[in-house]
Recover the amino acids of this structure.
């Protein structure tokens, strides 16, 4: 998973694309437990699975994913479609399955979970590090659409 995220960061950093759609074809992606699971958002990213890919966090607090929205993006989006987030058990309040770090001062972003399943998650699902100075839109910034929490 670390190499996978590194490749996505490299593609996004090139600024060649307005949107990156990643078709997840493997049944399971084990999220590495070394604590280096970071994704930088330079453009819209969609993680899509036709058959329901599983992100297995392997019951480790170090397997969380940090997602940082880079400055100067407008209408930035990260969308997860048809993905199961699985096996994250950590009962300390400052540990999260997903941490979103928004590094700009407006609310023109979207984090969407569409048809996702959260299974065997005994911790906080996500945390949002963000400080809004100006409101640019009235619609929700975080959406859970047709998701299951098991």
């Amino acid at each position: 998973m670390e190499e996978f995220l590194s490749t996505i960061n490299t593609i996004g950093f090139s600024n060649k694309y307005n949107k990156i759609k990643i078709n997840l074809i493997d049944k399971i992606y084990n999220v590495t437990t070394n604590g280096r699971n970071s994704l930088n958002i330079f453009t819209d990213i969609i993680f899509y699975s036709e058959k329901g890919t599983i992100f297995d966090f392997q019951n480790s607090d170090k397997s969380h994913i940090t997602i940082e929205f880079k400055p100067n993006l407008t209408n930035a989006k990260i969308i997860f479609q048809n993905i199961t987030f699985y096996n994250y058990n950590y009962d300390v309040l400052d540990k999260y399955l997903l941490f979103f770090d928004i590094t700009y001062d407006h609310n023109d972003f979207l984090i969407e979970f569409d048809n996702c399943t959260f299974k065997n998650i005994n911790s906080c699902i996500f945390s949002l590090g963000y400080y809004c100075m100006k409101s640019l839109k009235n619609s929700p910034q975080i959406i859970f659409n047709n998701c299951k929490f098991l």
Remarks:
- The chain is about 10% helix and 50% strand.
- Residues 10 and 40 are 9 Å apart (CA to CA).
- Residues 2-149 form one domain.
